[in-house]
Design brief:
Blueprint: E1 2-8, E2 18-23, H1 24-32, E3 40-43, E4 49-52, H2 56-59, E5 65-77, E6 80-91, E7 96-102, E8 119-122, E9 125-129, E10 136-138, E11 145-146, E12 158-160, E13 167-168, E14 181-183, E15 190-191, E16 204-206, E17 214-215, E18 227-229, E19 236-237, E20 249-251, E21 258-259, E22 272-276, E23 281-282, E24 295-299, E25 307-309, E26 322-324, E27 329-332, E28 345-348, E29 354-355, E30 366-371, E31 378-379, E32 390-395, H3 400-406, E33 414-416
Parallel strand pairs: 1-7, 9-11, 10-12, 11-13, 12-14, 13-15, 15-17, 16-18, 17-19, 19-21, 20-22, 21-23, 22-24, 23-25, 25-27, 26-28, 27-29, 28-30, 29-31, 30-32, 32-33
Antiparallel strand pairs: 1-4, 2-3, 2-5, 5-6, 8-9
């Protein structure tokens, strides 16, 4: 990374200064013609800094170092301009620092004239970019929200979202296939629907410092995400929010109340998921065909037990061998564990009151179902496996008569917990 500091002759940082980057060839061309297009452009932040993140493969092909120059240009027209520059050798793996001192005394006397921003901003809403070729972007402090589709199919590779930003609109960065790095501010509250959909180069996500309470539906659908750090403020994950991503281990904060329909569907790399013990809804096909899912863990304490596991929530999770339901779950809907071919044991916590049709069937043999409640839950049609497909049903000590009366066809395999 190359960090450029822009300041005046007194050493005071200059915000919103556009810094242009050139290599040795384009810099020579620029000295003759100030309209020559820069290789990269970045705008300084409140501290007068602009950070250029240079990918090794793109910028250092054939060598470990490169001569780069960085320029601040004050251009009123082709015959009225000033520019200041600094630069030198940039080496792979080393952070470089350059300072550009700008003589502001000769810049236009009209104090209301501000350097031209590379962004289109209206009343704090970022509508888009003036230069669609920008790849390294740091948003200015004035941005409060990003408009729907503002960076649709953009060429942005690295993105730093400013402190003060509160919301990211629908499809704001959708199909920005080169976007590999995003820094999220603590002020962020809303991530809209489809906001980062199809950002296939995005592999890591750190939302831990934000105030986000809900991740919109399809927000990170079919991205390259392998790791996500969630904020403690999170309460809801929208439908298909992480569908077909590359996540491996997911830990949800204990405040999460709802996982939307198909939120993690077909995340075929997912090995473990940590759910809140107080979750109130796991949506339809939330973990459908997460074929490598082996462990379901839990965090936090149950506060109210009105939760629902919706239809086919874990269908096709072929690597599950044992599952304990969250303590808050009171109802299981249809076909929760269908096609979980290696599932041997299902443990139902004491608050489960209702199991709908095919709720505990897998279409394969189970070793046992363990009930922890003193009362046998209500069941629908074929909620329990065929008698020949299960070895035993374990119930609390002293409660076997209650369960045998409720499930008379299974009396021969109902046993009390020792």
């Amino acid at each position: 990374m190359v960090e450029i500091t822009v300041c005046n002759l007194k050493g005071e940082p200059l915000e919103n200064q556009l810094v242009k980057m050139y290599d040795d060839v384009t810099y020579e061309a620029f000295k003759k013609d100030q309209t020559v297009k820069a290789l990269l452009e970045m705008t300084t932040n409140q501290e007068g800094k602009a950070n250029f993140i240079l990918e090794n493969q793109r910028w250092f092909a054939g060598g470990n170092s490169k001569e780069l120059m960085f320029v601040v240009l004050n251009m009123r027209d082709v015959s009225n301009y000033e520019w200041w520059s600094m630069g030198g050798t940039v080496t792979i793996g080393k952070k470089c620092f350059f300072k550009i001192e700008v003589d502001t005394r000769n810049i236009a006397q009209d104090k209301d004239v501000k350097p031209e921003s590379p962004f289109l901003i209206e009343d704090g809403v970022l509508m888009g970019m003036k230069d669609p070729s920008l790849t390294q972007v740091v948003l200015p402090a004035e941005v409060k929200s990003i408009a729907p589709g503002a960076f649709w199919e953009s060429n942005v590779e690295s993105l730093v979202l400013n402190e003060g930003l509160e919301s990211i609109g629908v499809q704001a960065f959708a199909r920005s296939t080169k976007l590999a790095s995003v820094t999220f501010p603590s002020s962020l509250k809303v991530i809209g629907k489809h906001a980062f959909e199809d950002c296939v180069a995005l592999t890591k996500l750190n939302l831990s410092k934000t105030k986000v309470e809900e991740i919109g539906s399809n927000a990170f659908r079919e991205t390259g995400l392998k790791e996500v750090a969630f904020p403690v403020s999170l309460k809801k994950i929208g439908s298909q929010a992480f569908l077909k991503t590359q996540l491996e281990n997911v830990v949800l904060p204990e405040g999460v109340q709802e996982i939307g329909n198909e939120a993690f569907r077909e995340v075929v790399t997912l090995k473990s998921i940590t759910l809140p013990n107080n979750i109130q809804k796991v949506g339809e096909r939330a973990f459908y065909t997460c074929e490598k899912l082996e462990k379901v863990n839990y965090v936090g304490q149950v506060k109210w037990a009105e939760g629902i596991l919706e239809r086919a929530a874990f269908e096709g999770c072929r690597s599950l061998t044992t599952i304990i339901l969250p303590q808050s779950i009171a109802e299981l809907q249809e076909g929760i564990f269908m096609e979980c071919s290696n599932l041997k044991e299902i443990i139902l916590t004491k608050f489960v009151r209702k199991i709908k049709d095919y709720g505990l069937r897998t279409n394969y043999k189970l070793e046992r179902i363990r009930f922890e409640g003193d009362e046998a839950p209500e069941i629908g049609n074929y909620s329990l496996p065929f008698l020949e497909s299960i070895m035993e049903i374990i119930v609390p000590k002293g409660k076997s008569d209650i369960y045998k009366a409720k499930y008379p066809d299974y009396q021969s395999i109902i046993r009390e917990n020792p």
